[in-house]
Specification:
Number of helices: 11
Number of strands: 22
Shape: globular
Largest sheet: 8 strands, parallel
Structural class: alpha/beta
Strand order of the largest sheet: 21-20-19-18-14-11-10-22
Radius of gyration: 21 Å
Oligomer: single chain
Strand content: 15-25%
Length: 447
């Protein structure tokens, strides 16, 4: 069920100082814009059709002006009044869209589902922290675990990665004694998007690769996009009854979501992940998870949010409690209690843009706006360091990761690193913060 199909009803009317009032708008998933803006502004909007599906919230179009938070929106009136937090009453079942717009000296708040209001006589950061504490206490989950340090293949090799590339870097890390716990194989190992039981020709044996990683004294990690299905996959051909709606376009093909309420799809996922676990992988980067909560009719009588949580529970059971799960491109509030760490930003490094660039870091805004989630909902993954010399923003990005990266990783070919890059990897991966809230919040939070 899409909340965008329901009508918006008034929730509150807040007297504000129009010059000083601010709105915190929380996006739907890891890659969705999240920020604090003046109450009279209009937040980011998708400029292309696919972005509504893959960057915002499918089935929930945004208003022409103002704001729309998905399950969470906060108004700081900028006067002597309290900061007001509007949030989903049960984000494991339903996540309403919550809108706000400035009308004269008032902010008008509306929602298309049940919300809870909390007034906090303190600043925005305190209000968000209280919300995070309340949400965590309402969800049964084990204590947060310290995050392992990670090397990831993606930002150097992309889809061209080979088994030999993984082994080369694992051996280089061992030789240099870099403080890396997990060697993670990213996108490119699989036969097709949706076919997670077989590797490509470049990865003839996942079992053998895991053993070679283990031989260097490190754990083996692997990437998969379990809730999304490419049209070229064997799964799409053999089980069209498992597919659910338009999930966008990537890998030069159309994508569909997986109906996570279908017993056959659940068994398929469980078997694929358990096979990886049995092969020696105990760190799972779960990407493009938004596809599990797409709007549409399902086999079972579940909302998109409910089906999504069922899918995550299947993955957790298959991986085992000892495995570490990192969510990415994931509906955020519905994931609480089911992942160990969460990407809180879009990808920072983009190979399409020249590597020596003065463009601002596109991951920074989300990392800072969601800093309050660290140690409350999960461990925050700011995105991997890229510290090779050709990345012109490497120093700025390292500073962001050092301040607000709860999970520390890097994604360069080790042989390409200069002394500064190697030193930065050693320093930041040797000083991982504990899984508790950050003491220092971003400058955007204080009143």
């Amino acid at each position: 069920m899409s909340t965008g199909q329901r009508g918006f009803q008034p929730v509150d009317e807040v007297v504000v100082d129009p010059r000083r009032a601010r709105v915190y708008e929380h996006g739907w998933q890891s890659w969705s814009p999240t920020s604090v803006l003046p109450a009279g502004a209009t937040s980011a909007r998708p400029s292309l059709g696919w972005q509504q599906v893959m960057r915002f919230r499918p089935g929930s179009p945004l208003p022409v002006a103002g704001f729309q938070g998905e399950g969470l929106l906060v108004v700081d009136p900028g006067n002597d009044g309290p900061v007001r937090t509007y949030a989903a009453t049960d984000p494991g079942h339903d996540v309403p869209s919550i809108r706000a717009r400035l009308d004269g000296d008032r902010v008008m708040v509306s929602a298309d589902g049940a919300t809870r209001l909390r007034a906090t006589w303190a600043g925005l950061g305190t209000a968000l922290g209280h919300y995070g504490d309340d949400l965590r206490s309402s969800v049964a989950q084990a204590p947060l675990r310290p995050a392992p340090t990670v090397w990831c293949s993606w930002y150097h090799y992309f889809l061209d990665v080979t088994e030999a590339d993984i082994v080369e870097n694992a051996e280089a890390m061992a030789r240099l004694d870099l403080p890396v716990d997990v060697v993670q194989v990213d996108d490119g190992w699989q036969a097709e998007i949706g076919d997670w039981t077989a590797g490509s020709t470049r990865f003839p044996s996942l079992d053998r690769l895991a053993q070679r990683i283990h031989d260097t004294g490190r754990r083996a990690g692997i990437w998969l996009a379990p809730f999304i299905v490419g049209e070229r996959s064997a799964l799409a051909r053999d089980h069209p009854e498992w597919l659910l709606g338009d999930a966008g376009h990537n890998w030069d093909q159309r994508l569909s979501g997986l109906d996570l309420s279908h017993p056959g799809a659940q068994e398929h996922l469980w078997t694929a992940v358990r096979n990886m676990r049995d092969a020696g992988y105990d760190y799972f980067k779960l990407d493009f998870l938004y596809a599990g909560a797409l709007p549409g009719a399902r086999h079972g009588d579940l909302t998109g949010v409910q089906a999504y949580r069922v899918g995550l529970e299947v993955l957790r059971d298959a991986a085992g409690e000892e495995s570490y799960l990192l969510g990415c491109g994931a509906p955020l509030l519905p994931s609480v209690g089911l992942v160990d760490a969460m990407r809180v930003s879009p990808d920072t490094y983009n190979p399409v843009v020249p590597e020596v660039s003065d463009d601002p870091l596109r991951g920074r805004a989300g990392v800072e706006a969601r800093a309050w989630q660290q140690g409350r909902l999960w461990v925050n993954d700011a995105d991997a360091l890229v510290v090779r010399p050709v990345f012109g923003l490497r120093r700025e990005w390292a500073d962001v990761v050092e301040r607000y990266g709860g999970l520390r990783s890097f994604s360069d070919r080790v042989a390409d690193l200069d002394d500064w890059g190697l030193g930065t990897v050693r320093r930041l991966l040797s000083s991982v913060p504990p899984p508790v809230p950050f003491v220092q919040l971003p400058d955007a939070y204080p009143r």
